[in-house]
Amino acid sequence: MEPIRLVSSRRARERNLRDRQMRLFLASALFFSVLVSGYALIRYGSIFKITGIRVLGLQDESNTREVVEYLTEKFEGGAAARFLGSNNIFAWPRSGALHTTDLPFLSTVSFSRKLFSRRIDVETTPREKFGIWCSHSDKTSCFWFDITEGVLLEETPTPEGTIIPVISENSERGRVLGEQVLDAEHLSRLAIVFAFIEDPLFSAKSVAFDQSLDELRIVLVKGPSVRVSLRFDPGSNLTAMGEFLKNKSSKTVKSIDLTVENKLYWTAS
Q1: Contacts of 44 (CB under 8 A, 6+ apart)
Q2: Which among 6, 108, 109, 255 is most buried, taking Cβ atoms within 10 Å?
Q3: At 218, which CATH number?
Q4: What is the DSSP string of 18-69?
Q5: Pairing of the two strands 119-126 and 106-114
Q6: pLDDT mean across residues, the chain
Q7: What does the pLDDT look like over 27-77, one tens digit per residue?
Q8: Is the pLDDT of residue 7 over 90?
């Protein structure tokens, strides 16, 4: 009878092994089925499609469209979108901030993903337009720029008869959108100059920038031509020029040189 027990025991072990293998196969098949169904639901289900991208902080419609197109191309063209499908809420990160090199009219841009509303909210801080920078090389190119960082924000036609600050620059190479024309130190000095010539007594007919000398060449509407250096704070020199012109007929002055700190040089007409 002993050999019979051995055979029965061996058959029982084999039957248990087959049962475990079958359970494992069924569990794996169920898991795979759930995984595929979940993937199909996420990729093709309408409940995960983005309902819209809301851009906050911008009023210009063309800039708003540019932000939406830029972000859509950035995230819906990535690996996550290729796997999950375009216009999928999970193709976007939960939140983040972006460098604004490609969107120079913005100082900051950040976004957050709203799962329940299936919406992307984009927070933006636009750069403030201060004046127009015109570069004259092979052709004339004019851009709005901001006084905080000196970034060329967007192209604009050549201004004519405008009260907006305009700077002309003769350059071997033209300026490009997004470029920084001056550093923060020079920009603060430029702001001092423009604050001064806002006074109707010293309003400017034209302002030109000489990059090699860090100088502004200003032609006053009712007065002489003026050279102003941006290598130091021009405030005291401009104050001295203001007092000088108030006490002297501008018709007798041909030019004024403010390129030396705390010095004023002038030539007679």
Answers
A1: 85
A2: 109
A3: 3.40.50.11690
A4: HHHHHHHHHHHHHHHHHHHHHHHHHHH-GGGB--EEEEES---HHHHHHHHH
A5: antiparallel
A6: 83
A7: 676 666 665 555 555 555 556 777 888 999 888 888 899 998 888 888 776
A8: no
Q: Are residues 158 and 112 in the same domain?
A: no
Query: Whole-model pTM above 0.90?
Result: no
* Cβ contacts of 108-116, under 8 Å, gap ≥ 24: 109/67, 111/71, 113/89, 115/89
Token couple for 9: 């025991």
- The one-letter code for the residue type at 75 is F
> Are 35 and 70 part of one and the same domain?
no
Give me the number of domains the chain comprises: 4
Same domain, 92 and 54: yes
Which residue range(s) make up the domain with 98?
49-126
Q: Are residues 20 and 36 in the same domain?
A: yes
**Which are the contacts of 55, defined by CB distance < 8 A and separation ≥ 6?**
64, 67, 68, 122, 124
Q: Where are the beta strands (DSSP E) in 137-233?
A: 140-145, 152-155, 166-170, 204-210, 215-220, 225-229
Domain boundary among 149, 165, 180: 180
Query: Do 216 and 197 contact (CB within 8 A), yes or no?
Result: no
Q: How far apart are CA 214 and CA 231, in angstroms?
A: 6
Rounded Cα gap, residues 88 and 82, in angstroms: 10
Distance between CA atoms of residues 214 and 259, nearest Å: 9
- The residue behind tokens 């093709």 is 44
Q: Are residues 186 and 267 in the same domain?
A: yes
| Three-state secondary structure call for residue 253 | strand
- Residue 226, pLDDT > 90, answer yes
